[in-house]
Amino acid sequence: MYYSWTGVNKLVLKSVNRKEIILKANEFGAFIIRVVLGVTFFLHGLAKYQEGIGVVQDRFLHYNIPYADYVAVGVIFVEMLGGLFMIIGFTTRFIAILFISIMAGAVTYVHFDMGFLGGYELQVLLIAMSLFLLFAGSKFLAIDNFFVERKKKK
Fold this sequence. Notes:
- The chain is mostly helical and 154 residues long.
- The protein has one domain.
- Helices cover 68% and strands 5% of the residues.
- The protein is built from five helices and two strands.
- A two-stranded antiparallel ribbon has the order 1-2.
- A hairpin with a 5-residue loop joins strand 1 (2-5) and strand 2 (11-14).
- The two termini are 19 Å apart.
């Protein structure tokens, strides 16, 4: 067992089981999922915004979504701001819950009748990515690190 400097401002204990190294790889994987998910939602929200809020509201009315006027504005807001927050790692778990809610609504009201392939497979993928971030979090290059108090090891 020995110590080494990793170059990421962290002293890592290397041992036979290499548990710390595996955790680093998982954190980087979560970072990739977080950024891809954030970019995806941001771009979808931006497309809705550029299309026009009225057009999105009309489409949501056509899908029989309750309170479509309010839901359309909320979805655009959450997709754009939530996407940015997800990219920078700010309130990652909370934003993941919002993304799951939006995608559950999209599957329920829009895509379910089309079946899995060509229908709601993208929404299931985005829900799975959001669930991963909800349960595992993502600390690598995240703004949340500045707001979370860490327990000091003795």
